Amino acid sequence: MTLRANPVELTKTEFDILLLLSESPGRVCTLEQIYRNVWKDEYIGAANTVIAHIKNLRNKLGESPRDRGFIGTVWGVCYKFAED
Predict the structure, then answer these.
(1) Hey, what CATH class is 9-81 in?
(2) How many C-beta atoms surround the C-beta of residue 77 within 10 A?
(3) What does the chain look like in DSSP terms, one character per residue?
(4) What phi and psi, each to the nearest 5 degrees, are found at residue 12?
(5) Which of 10, 24, 41, 67 has a Cα at 20 to 30 A from 16?
């Protein structure tokens, strides 16, 4: 994929997470929803797995913790793709 005309290499999992979030901008997805949709498996304590992939994805997209980038955090719920 490219971002601002620069190539960005994503793993299949990172791409699948980005696709899931971007399909419904503004809709919040829980860790469980992300895990079940991307890994196609039962969510049993896999929070760290999802969080690590989100962190890697944000780094590859050039987002910093202070940035309001593509992937937003909804504290206590999970993640969403930016609406604008």
Answers:
(1) mainly alpha
(2) 11
(3) -EETTEE----HHHHHHHHHHHTSTT--EEHHHHHHHHH-S--SS-HHHHHHHHHHHHHHTT--TT---SEEEETTTEEEE---
(4) -60, -40
(5) 67
Cα separation, 12 vs 10, in Å, equals 6
pLDDT exceeds cutoff 90 at 34: yes
Whole-structure pTM value: 0.81
Given this model, what pLDDT does residue 13 score?
97
Which tens digits make up the pLDDT trace of 36-66? 999 999 998 888 999 999 999 988 888 765 5
Separation between Cα atoms, residue 76 and residue 34, nearest integer Å: 15
